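Hi P.,

Sorry for the delay on this. The queue was packed all week, but I finally got your sequence through. Input first:
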Amino acid sequence: MISSPPKLRDELEVIRGMDDIPLIFDPVTGNYHRITRAGEVVLTYLDGTRTREDLVALLSRADEARAEALSRQIDTFLAALDKSGLLEGSAPPDKPQDTGRVRTSMLMPRIVLTRSLPRLLEPVAVVLRAVPAKLLVLITSLLALVGYSFGFHTLFTAMPPAKDIAGPAFLIATGVMLLCVFLHETAHALVAQILGTPVRGLGVALLFYFMPVAYVDRTDAYRFRGRAGRVVLAMAGILSDGVFCGLSGVVALNSDGLLRDTAALLLGMQLLMLIVNLNPLMPSDGYTAIEAATGLTNARGRAFSLLRHAVRRQELPAHLAHLSTAARRGHMTYGVFSVVYVCLLAYAMFHAVPVTVDLSLSAVGR
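Then the structure:
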């Protein structure tokens, strides 16, 4: 029930997130609630001294026509705040999300392995904060670029065909790759720590209840407003993978036997991981970086909607018709790229299935 006069809970924090978007942070649940800039103005008056009628009169400035519209909007806004448990006297908010080790969702249950990363990473973050940010990003990017170039050149020019690699190398490479995945997520966590928005935890999610995926909870990244920092945060894992890819290439070129075979397989897995992390159709690191750099949300949905209407020669809906010609072309280019990406990935996976089966059987001696 909405209290009268309505009052925002004292412990709530109103902040500005990416691209200056107003947010309400609830420390009890750990949730962020996005609001409009008009809603942010209304929040300044929810101090428990003004009734709903006072708010309408104050904001409408004695304009009866405007008062009628504002009345409906304020009712809707207050109802949303009440439903979210953000007003004094409204239903208590849900229990904190970060209690317990296991969280469930419709398609991706999550197991939290540790919440100690901020404490462990802070000594490293202190040292890195002393380095100019642009220099740090430049060095890391160059190392990643050199690493990817060297590693994949080694994979395609100096390594034996995957079908000729047998024995336990596949199992060892898989174990090392799992470690690389956690280091990938730790890189995200380290950048978040440097930016002053520590991650909430490191864990494993089961995509569709059977596919293990490592993750870090970057919910508080909403607090960081700069686009450049958010792009680096999104790309941190990919950059760290580039460094490890280069190291794998060095090992592969300077070894033989089991160690060489393991490094060769690891390079192949790292190539696959890069392809997955650049997937334009999922909330991958690459897609997140694009959103952070452009300030766009749901670019994927707009792109495919534009393509669909273009193919069917249908009139564009209002939310797409107002896009500039350049923005429209950009979205459609993104949509075409996504379609081509899926076709190439499906082709590659189809041809990789027999080799993967052979490697798995050889790893268990069959």
